Amino acid sequence: MSRPRRATRLPLTTPPLPDGINSMKRALGVCYYPEHWPEDQWPDDAARMAETGLTWVRIGEFAWSRLEPQPDRLDFGWLDRAIEVLGAAGLKVVLGTPTATPPRWMLDRHPDMLAQDAQGRPRKFGSRRHYCFSHPGYRTECARIVAALAERYGQNSHVAAWQTDNEYGCHDTTLSYSAAARDGFRHWLAQRYQSVEALNRAWGNVFWSMEYRSIDDIDLPNQTVTEPNPAHLMAFRRYASDQVVAFNRLQSQIIRRQSAAPILHNYMGRITDFDHFAVGADLDIASWDSYPIGFLSDRLEASEDHKTAFLHQGDPDFQAFHHDLYRAVGRGRWWIMEQQPGPVNWAPWNPAPLTGMARLWAWEAFAHGAEAVCYFRWRQAPFAQEQMHAGLLRPDSAAAPALDEVAEVARELAEMPEAGTVRADIAIIFDYASAWAWEVQPQGKDFDYFRLVFAFYRALRRAGVSVDFLPSDSASLKSHKLVFAPGLMTIPPPLMTAMAAHEGTLILGPRTNSKTPDFATPVPLPPALDFLDARISLVESLPPAIAISLQGGGAVRHWLERLEGNFKVTLKTTDGAPIMASTGSKHYLAGWPDDTALDRIVADACKAEGIARTPVTGGLRIRDTATHRFVFNYGKDPADFAGQTVSAAGVLWRPLA
Ligand code: GAL
């Protein structure tokens, strides 16, 4: 395919950053597996990475069988040499802990360390992530290997960052139904509830005679005849998330004792099984693994037309959503640890990126404040599971298509090395426990928390405004003029106070504050807000074909609530039923708005707060940094933006006035 023409770029002038804006250097990197290649190839690889303009190289995260080929017989010689070769070429190393891939002999020591699926079947050796987060023996082994690595490389000047494990939760591994998980869960329940009576009361176990006489009688919530108590399920989800947090904390504490280098973890797209904010609290930087084309076919509800239009580019909002979310998880500091360079191997279909996308994806990440974008992987492996996954090099070491684009981004970065992320005027509250609650009791087949929040986010992107995410334990909303909290199942008391005090616009619902932390319906009835007199008297979930039209255009779908109370009706159905209940600038939405309705809601709220919109259509998207406006074209054809042509798969930027 010939390279599409780029629009002429405007001059790269970088005005000084205003006070209080986060300014950071940007860099590129790559994931490398020295243990996959003959040692005499390493110097060439390292030199070529440096020539391409790469700064970072991540290694080691799956190498346990080479670091400890026999139990307690550590072999660091090869890793010493690999780090030396990479460092000598001027590269900075991110050293991964290898705990996602325990070697086969580990099972001889700990036969019961395997996770079990909900049917009680062990998840066997022969791929990766074959461990249960709750297994104490395996945690001890992890602490041992991480300590050995940290002691050996903690002061190594080439090791400039650490990665804990790899993609917690990948391959559905957060939840395990093993004996270790059951024992851990009982212990956790005893801590949380203190007595079996309190637990029975909190869960409502009088229902169906589910009362327990001892916490030690409580099993995991799988293999029941019909659905388990949602409170039981919700407690198990909280427990499972806490195990990921503890597993990660153990590693980061060990590393910190030996090294001052920042520690990060590589999260994933649309994985909500554990609380990323809680894991992130123990880390210095958040990173995530971005596979736009794989995600489009594998992880996104969208029409076939949409999937066809963006087949070679990825969804225009999915990456940006995660950039913004993980910026919040990393408290401002975040990276892309793995960026798709070509076709992947794991989605239902694996098309190649359009020429230009490897560059566009990188710039989009930088425009959202990424400090680094690392590609996965340096050279395509000719063996094992991922032989069909492209790298920056082909298996024969010739350049794969993305390599040139990466070198181009490196040259562009040299011209414009600073990024300044600004606080957006708009925030969405994102809450992992709400995602579990939706799964525990969805009530409608297609009702999903991520999907709901993503619908709001997409509407904001269509309006061309920047968005921040906030965790639900935020105790102040002062920093943002307009705050959305769609589907937030429980409002913690400090957030309720912050919402009441918020002087800007607040848009809650649907289903916000509809359950207690122990998964009961609150009385007085939801949304039980301190600042808005509204009660939901009835809820309905609706099949996808049903649309309830709204006066003035648009509709609600999937979910509808009936409201009573003393409020102003600011949006109603064509039948006159209230859909938005308002008091001043605080609003509760009693349904899931379609795109037309969301666009209206966003436009009205932005107007009320004096936030300028720049509506965009098709594949065009924009994002402002402190100094520049970036324009991205996810479309297959050139598009016009404010009188300028943005080429297909192109990006341009200009200084903000
Ligand atoms: C990620 C993972 C990598 C590799 C990659 C392939 O999920 O962290 O190790 O498997 O996917 O796309």
Features:
657 residues, binds beta-D-galactopyranose, alpha/beta, TIM Barrel, 2 domains, 8-stranded parallel beta barrel, 7-stranded mixed β-sheet
Report on this model:
With 657 residues, the chain is an alpha/beta fold. The protein has two domains: 27-171 and 245-415, Alpha-Beta Barrel (TIM Barrel), CATH 3.20.20; 426-609, Rossmann fold, CATH 3.40.50. 31% of the residues lie in helices and 19% in strands. The protein has 18 helices and 26 strands. An eight-stranded parallel β-barrel has the order 2-3-4-5-6-7-8-9, surrounded by five helices. β24 and β25 form a beta hairpin. The longest helix has 29 residues, at 230-258. The protein binds beta-D-galactopyranose (GAL). Beta-D-galactopyranose (GAL) binds at residues 166-167, 170, 289, 291, 338, 344, 346, 376, 386, 389.
Topology:
Blueprint: E1 22-25, E2 27-31, H1 42-52, E3 56-59, H2 64-67, H3 77-88, E4 92-96, H4 105-109, H5 136-153, E5 159-163, H6 179-193, H7 196-203, H8 230-258, E6 263-267, H9 276-280, E7 285-290, H10 292-298, H11 304-309, H12 318-329, E8 334-339, H13 357-367, E9 372-375, H14 402-415, E10 418-421, E11 426-430, H15 432-440, H16 449-462, E12 467-471, E13 482-485, H17 493-501, E14 505-508, E15 534-541, E16 548-549, E17 555-565, E18 568-572, E19 578-583, E20 586-589, E21 591-593, H18 595-609, E22 620-624, E23 628-633, E24 639-641, E25 644-646, E26 651-655
Parallel strand pairs: 2-3, 2-9, 3-4, 4-5, 5-6, 6-7, 7-8, 8-9, 11-12, 11-13, 13-14, 14-20
Antiparallel strand pairs: 1-10, 15-17, 16-17, 17-21, 18-19, 19-20, 22-23, 23-26, 24-25
Helix pairs in contact: 5-8, 6-8, 8-15, 13-14, 16-18
